[in-house]
């Protein structure tokens, strides 16, 4: 039997709404891992049962001071948790987490939102280029160098 400290630690990060729903839908992929969730709504805490949960400031490129605050809190979370992998479905908090996770040597996965039918999200386009695995949920948006299409979550 594996000890808690032997399990891989996954930091799962998403904004609210559809991003959070999609992150929760892929949660079975984290079975066997210690999963730490980060999102922008403390009201989502019950969704993860007894797993670690952090709520951060909701921020976008239009709220730069809040974005800086969110980045500092994410930096602290990553320093504290030391994840082996960072997974995000978007948006701004996920981009920041992907970039910081890479700095700390974590493997990174970006799954762009299914809502982005015509083109990738801005954060997805930016984060994907820094991710170890970059996925889209639309086959027509897939490219040889990424993002890759492996199916849809919803």
Short description:
With 154 residues, this protein is α/β, with parallel strands linked by helices. It has 4 helices and 7 strands, in the order βαββαβαβαββ.
Q: Could you please describe the fold and organization of this structure?
A:
This protein is an alpha/beta fold and 154 residues long. 29% of the residues lie in helices and 21% in strands. Helix 2 (64-81) packs across helix 3 (92-103) and helix 3 runs parallel beside helix 4 (122-128). The model has no long low-confidence stretch (mean pLDDT 93).
Could you spell the SSE succession in H and E letters?
Answer: EHEEHEHEHEE
What is the strand arrangement across the widest sheet?
A: 3-2-1-4-5-6-7
Classify the beta-strand content into a percent band. Answer: 15-25%
* Largest β-sheet summary: 7 strands, parallel
CATH topology assignment: Rossmann fold
Which value, in Å, is the CA radius of gyration?
15 Å
Distance between the termini: 34 Å
- Broad shape: globular
Mean pLDDT figure: 93
What is the name of the CATH class? Alpha Beta
Number of helices: 4
CATH superfamily: Glycogen Phosphorylase B
Features:
single chain, alpha/beta, Rossmann fold, seven-stranded parallel sheet
